[in-house]
Amino acid sequence: MQINTVQTSAFGDQKPGTSGLRKKVKVFQHPHYLENFVQSIFDTLIEKEGMPTDATLAVGGDGRYYNRHAIQTIIQMAAANGFARVIVGQAGILSTPAVSHIIRKYKTFGGMILSASHNQGGVDGDFGIKYNISNGGPAPEKITDEVFAKSKVITAYKIADLAEIDVDTLGETSFNGGKFTVQVINAVQDYADLMQSLFDFSAIKNLLASGFQIKFDAMHAVTGPYAQEIFINRLGAPAHSLMNCVPSEDFGGGHPDPNLTYAEDLVKIMFAGDKAPDFGAASDGDGDRNMILGKNFFVTPSDSLAVLAANATLVPAYAKGIAGVARSMPTSGAVDRVAAKLNIPCYETPTGWKFFGNLMDAGKVTLCGEESFGTSSNHVREKDGLWAVLFWLNVLAQKNTEKTKASVEQILKSHWLEYGRNVYSRHDFEAIPTEAANIVMAHIKAQFESLPNQTFGSYTVKTCDDFSYHDSIDGSISNNQGVRILFVDGSRIVFRLSGSGTEGATLRIYLEAFEPDSAKQSVDAQVALAEMIQIALKISQLKEKTGRDTPTVIT
Ligand code: G1P
Ligand code: ZN
User: Structure pTM?
Assistant: First the structure.
């Protein structure tokens, strides 16, 4: 096995964002671009993270365009940089939670996930790479900061001269007298086994056999084969329960983002009146997000997390109770109310799954979630779309017996009755010129001193700040994690710039108001939050500074 050292020069823009490095495919196709970033990761692992000489790397992606090419390059570079083994998903495909599971199950040193998550794919779409550490979770900032630093000064990378690996055929291929091995595995079985070990599959099977109709939309992305194995083969759902379950390199031309805007085909089916199925769900490009729908009913991700926490003991894996919960700062406080009632801790972390890992490793939390359609538990160290869907089905199976019936909508309404409703919405303004977006954020921050005690219509500002997080486990501090305007009555507006886009800036405005009065809890969120939306526009001067006052996506 010949190892070549290739001279290169740094790019300067390889800063990992909220979830790895994401760029247009065309950017990744620049000569050396992919290699520079991969070498910067390996150099960080070798120099700073004590990578052993017999290390194994797990590799897989969401099947988007450039996945296959990148996998061959990563295998060749892993061989040249001292890894002893690479475990790769068949056809190069592994969902993000499946990679997390494989890292943990096979005790690999780390893993690389090739995905730009819910961003569009194809030749003109996005590509991305994320490194996960040995606990199965996304690399923390101390690693991603070092990778960025190395990428800015890189001068060479190492790559082995290997013939192309057949990643479509299961099995092992060894090189260099057995010193380097590539193992192609079927990850669907491992993942499905894990799910079966957590949930009551026979109860869910009975629910589906009783005529309870479900519809799952894989959005032409990675969960298709997993859904086929779990819902059809193991749970006996009829074939028409699945849609868009064949992964495609450009996700059928759509955005593989499970929300009311981009999963519109599923939304139409689920809001078709009486003939709508009882339960609907979708997941994203790499299978870590989920959207939950009932018959003519949408469950916000923040509410979903709260309902799962409140009903966790109905699920075998959590029957003994949960240790604690965590949510990202912009996620609504609905789960906080459940935690208070259960008398367990609730942690508030910055946006991005990487902040949950330490808390889970320390046994402080069992369930975590983000408003951005992410929910999961300590069974892996990533968010997990199908896990959330199965959790809901397990809860529904327990609440729909011969004697009792409960729809998704009824479960939510009785949850609100018990805990009150955190009315919630997020408005995204995509593709704003970066400079204009920075001006808007600076304008809001400049009002930190003048805003407190000011009254806007029925809302009075209590405090405002730029969220900082102190990680109680490793002591690290993360600043500038989103601007919060907190009102006297507990409502809040959060402004944050996205760290996962590839075009201009995306401004996210998160709106939340608490409604304890059951008579008002069924009001549409956009109606209930209308006044706060106007206040957000006023404080930010969004229209004046960007010409925009209509969000591109509302979730
Ligand atoms: C977005 C979500 C965030 C999520 C991330 C990766 O990041 O808001 O919650 O963890 O995608 O899926 P953002 O673009 O807001 O930085
Ligand atoms: Zn994703």
Answer: 0.94
